[in-house]
Write a structure and sequence with these properties.
This protein is 41% helix and 23% strand. By secondary structure, the chain is of the alpha/beta class. Helix 1 packs across helix 5, helix 2 packs parallel to helix 3 and helix 6 packs across helix 8.
Length: 223
């Protein structure tokens, strides 16, 4: 059961979506105004946000950009009558996790919500969060306790892969295949050196490294 906020100015559609979600045993709240939605997102937390593109006072895209800019990590499904590729690109760039074009069937909506709820905690499109770290894929930026740290491309790629797969153990060979691809410098020594550098940059002094070595097995990102 998830706590869902529906932001939709079409009252009849909003009620229809609410009824579909109630049948799936979710807790549902509805607002019809963009400004009201912004205020609620500043005060309350939700598991899923269903956000219409066209809204009174503040558009869905403006709400989304402001929400992500404040560090909001709730999965967001954008509803819209806009079906062009450029419009979808705008939505995803603003921080949407999925996109549903009107009209749609309730079964498709609920299936997409189930898929979003299965995503790993901390995953929001190009913005990843784990422990004291935030990684912004699009802007090639990593924040440690709110302060930016500089990573080399391989360090960034390795950290991003681990943050997309937290609490999972990966053998050195698997990490080399995922991060180094087929480059000539893809060696275990190169991986070991990269992890040492990365630990110095991302770990908190006096605390265990969040990249844990599982001896004889591989590495795991854990808080």
């Amino acid at each position: 059961m998830a706590k869902v906020l529906i932001v939709e100015d079409d009252v009849s559609l909003g009620k229809m979506i609410r009824d579909w979600l109630l049948m799936e045993h979710h807790k549902v709240e509805i607002v019809t105004d963009g400004a009201e939605a912004q205020n609620m997102l500043k005060v309350y937390e939700y598991d899923i946000l269903i956000l219409d593109w066209e809204l009174p006072h503040v558009s869905g895209i403006e709400i989304l950009k402001e929400f992500r800019g404040r560090g909001g990590t709730t999965p967001v499904l954008v509803l819209t009558g806009k079906g062009e590729i450029d419009d979808k690109e705008t939505g995803f760039d603003a921080g949407a996790d999925d996109y549903l074009t009107k009209p749609f069937h309730g079964k498709e909506l609920t299936a997409r919500l189930r898929a979003l709820l299965r995503r790993p905690e901390g995953y929001v499109g190009d913005l990843l969060k784990f422990a004291h770290l935030t990684l912004d894929h699009q802007n090639f930026q990593v924040m440690k306790n709110g302060e930016e740290i500089r990573l080399l491309p391989k360090e960034f790629a390795l950290l991003e892969f681990l943050m997309r797969n937290p609490n999972r153990v990966f053998a050195a060979e698997a990490l080399l295949n995922r991060v180094w691809v087929t480059e000539s410098e893809a060696t275990v020594d190169a991986l070991t050196t990269c992890i040492k550098r990365l630990r110095k940059k991302i770990d908190v002094e006096g605390q265990p490294s969040i990249i844990r070595t599982i001896h004889g097995v591989g590495y795991r990102l854990e808080a």
